[in-house]
Amino acid sequence: MCRAGGVAAGVLDCGFMAVQISPSILTADFARLADVAEKVADAADWLHVDVMDNHFVPNLTIGLPVVESLLKATDLPIDCHLMIEDPDRWATAYAEAGAGSVTIHAEAAKAPVRTLRQIRAAGARAGFALNPGTAVQDYEDLLGEVDMLLVMTVEPGFGGQPFLDIMLPKIRKARELIGKHGGEIWLQVDGGVSAKTIERCAEAGADVFVAGNAVYGSDDPARAVRDLRAQAERAS
Ligand code: DX5
Ligand code: ZN
Asked: Is the CB–ligand 1 distance for residue 210 below 6 Å?
């Protein structure tokens, strides 16, 4: 088992990438977020929090005050996925609040280099997300600023959407570019990741797996996390 323990994870000594599971709370009960976190506390590496502003995506979720409360309620590191129109304005505050990872979208950031650097300077890992229609090759020059690349495998905005198979070549391409770059950059996938799709993602080179419905739609979320991890490890 390659449980990575949050920010200490990466490429293992044996040369294999460490599989990490980041359950998304998007479709869980927002009135009970502390319990939602607790359900996966012993099994997951991260808690994935989807921040949506109803502008960048057609959905509205939670913002900084709720993330601040959640940080006090769980020991799991928080993986903030900012689907907001102005990440340059807001990203650093999530890092300063204590999020372990803060991801901004390529399509929204007007000053991605500055914002990614500010996230790192505030002590968080800097994540960079690409919507399905955004080519990864266009951002090769930015890889030095990035700790985690997120390839969206659905159009962002809602949980429970079907996985977009056509993103598999992009995951492979992203892994190839990361390999060429040489630094330690994690490759996250988000959207429709489940027992049916996680192996294809792992085979294509992903190592950090966001799963919403596949975890919180299950009767036993911790077990779902462990099963997904085992599947991804077998396929990596
Ligand atoms: C979608 C969000 C995802 C979402 C994934 O825009 O970024 O994190 O919660 O949910 P599932 O795994 O159900 O597709
Ligand atoms: Zn997400």
From this structure: yes
